Backbone:
């Protein structure tokens, strides 16, 4: 009987403690993309991804890398890659493919002249090493005389090429229409003191309030 009283007392104490403990805010994010585009948060940032495939044979080159995405889908560019996570995800989903990395036609070949079609910084690379589908370190501008390897394919690792008829995909990348954050909080407004600055109202949900906060539009 004594043990039963101790058990019941502890159970009541535990129940009161749990019920009385404030629940931390929970944040859920969702990117809104145009129809058929894939929302994905990679390298800490939301983007929308699409792919043009099969690319016409005449476009599997510099022109295709620099024109297909922006011509077909307004606001998009050939995919830029900024971390290993994005590189692996894109290779698994689209590869082999043409990246958005290129050397403008008004510049000579030099590894320092590679840039992304969307203008973002070149802060990550995955050039193939000997034994990774190549006999020499990439990039190497191994084109015949009179030609320049100005574009890059991602085929397990990156290779600079003039063109590759066997690569038929050009993934495209663009900013989402908007990113929505939904905060679930307990007895406090989660929109104060955090990165969510614009609250679009809230609705009661039992003990919680739902705040839909627009990150950007």
Residues:
């Amino acid at each position: 009987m004594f043990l039963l009283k101790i058990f019941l007392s502890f159970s009541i104490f535990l129940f009161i403690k749990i019920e009385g403990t404030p629940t931390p805010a929970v944040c859920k994010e969702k990117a809104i993309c145009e129809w058929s585009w894939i929302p994905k948060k990679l390298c800490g940032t939301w983007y929308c991804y699409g792919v043009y495939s099969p690319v016409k044979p005449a476009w599997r080159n510099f022109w295709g890398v620099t024109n297909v995405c922006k011509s077909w889908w307004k606001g998009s560019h050939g995919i830029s890659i900024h971390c290993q996570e994005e590189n692996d995800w894109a290779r698994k989903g689209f590869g082999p493919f043409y990246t958005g990395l290129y050397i403008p036609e008004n510049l000579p070949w030099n590894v320092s002249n590679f840039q992304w079609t969307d203008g973002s910084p070149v802060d990550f690379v995955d050039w193939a090493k000997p034994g990774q589908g190549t006999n020499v370190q990439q990039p190497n501008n191994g084109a015949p005389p009179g030609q320049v390897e100005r574009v890059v394919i991602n085929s397990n690792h990156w290779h600079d090429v003039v063109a590759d008829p066997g690569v038929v995909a050009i993934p495209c990348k663009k900013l989402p229409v908007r990113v929505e954050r939904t905060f679930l909080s307990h007895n406090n407004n989660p929109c104060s003191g955090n990165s969510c600055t614009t609250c679009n109202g809230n609705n009661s949900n039992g003990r919680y309030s739902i705040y839909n906060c627009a990150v950007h539009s």
